[in-house]
Specification:
By secondary structure, the chain is of the alpha/beta class. It has helices at 4-11, 13-20, 29-43, 60-67, 79-89, 127-137, 201-210; strands at residues 50-54, 71-76, 94-98, 112-118, 138-149, 158-163, 166-171, 179-185, 192-198, 214-221, 241-247. Strand 1 (50-54), helix 4 (60-67) and strand 2 form a beta-alpha-beta unit. Helix 6 crosses helix 7 (201-210). The structure holds S-adenosylmethionine. The site of S-adenosylmethionine has 21 residues, from helix 1. It holds the Pfam family Methyltransf_11.
């Protein structure tokens, strides 16, 4: 039986792909461009590398990496996402596979020079296992780059209310706790309801260190710095995403 998160994502695959590929829909495209640029910056030149796209969704990052000269393996739990990914990827050198990234990955140890995991780990309930498996299949000297919605600001975990005419801030939960809830992904038509796993930044960093990886990149992306769409900068004063790079010791780069 597939995990709840995978079933949820599978059920919105077509809506998600339409949203992501709609140049006019700023909530999808603009948001995605910013985080993807940061992931690719941190990943470095993928040309000639064996790359794994972990939680590839409908595969746009896999296609980008393949066009840049990488040989790409891509895995996602949702068959519906993979059907779209295969249809959109044509003859590009991308090999898509269905699998649970919280389980044992279907790849040999020390296979990949680069692993990207774009906007996935806040949707999985066991990042420790997912990051440890990524570390296993990385070659020594290879790099994992992952992005998540920014844990500090996404849904802000609280709200301002007016009480007796005075503004009062009521936190829903404490930032430092890990907890799950159902989020609404706006911008999709209709909006989607999906399980979200909140964890503080330290949980991601600790999972990287527990997998014996070395922290090698850290960035916070924000629409307030979007060079492509200056008209959006007035809407966002916080960071939208967190991007983390982690390198496996050893090898030429380690
Ligand atoms: C927000 S989408 C991101 C997809 C893609 N990386 C992108 O940037 O568009 C999250 C993806 O993670 C996948 N996913 C969630 N939990 C998973 C798991 N345990 N194993 C494999 N895939 C999973 C979902 O099916 C979905 O395609």
């Amino acid at each position: 039986m597939a995990r709840r998160e995978i079933l949820e994502w599978g059920s919105i695959a077509e809506r998600y792909a339409a949203w992501l590929n709609d140049e006019e829909n700023i909530s999808g495209r603009a948001f995605t461009d910013i985080v993807t640029d940061a992931v690719l910056d941190m990943a470095g030149d993928p040309a000639g590398k064996r790359v794994l796209d972990l939680g590839c969704g409908e595969g746009y990052l896999s296609r980008h990496l393949a066009r840049a000269g990488a040989v790409v393996e891509a895995i996602d739990g949702a068959g519906e996402m993979l059907r779209i990914a295969r249809a959109l990827s044509g003859d590009l050198p991308v090999s898509f596979r269905q699998g649970d990234i919280c389980g044992k990955l279907p790849y040999d140890s020390s296979t990949f020079e680069l692993i990207v995991c774009n906007m996935v780990l806040m949707d999985v309930d066991d990042i420790g296992h997912a990051i440890a498996e990524a570390a296993r299949v990385l070659k020594p000297g290879g790099r994992l780059v992952f992005s998540v919605v920014h844990p500090t600001f996404f849904d802000a975990t609280g709200e301002w209310r007016s009480e007796d005419g005075q503004p009062v801030y009521r936190p829903r939960r404490r930032y430092v706790e890990e907890f799950s809830y159902v989020k609404t992904l706006v911008g999709l038509d209709p909006p989607a309801r999906l399980t979200h796993h909140h964890r503080p930044i330290q949980s991601y960093v600790q999972a990287v260190l527990a997998a014996s990886l070395v922290l090698s990149g850290f960035a916070e992306t924000s629409m307030s710095r979007d060079r492509r769409r200056p008209e959006l900068t007035r809407f966002h004063f916080t960071a939208n995403n967190l991007v983390i790079g982690a390198t496996k010791p050893g090898g030429a780069e380690g």
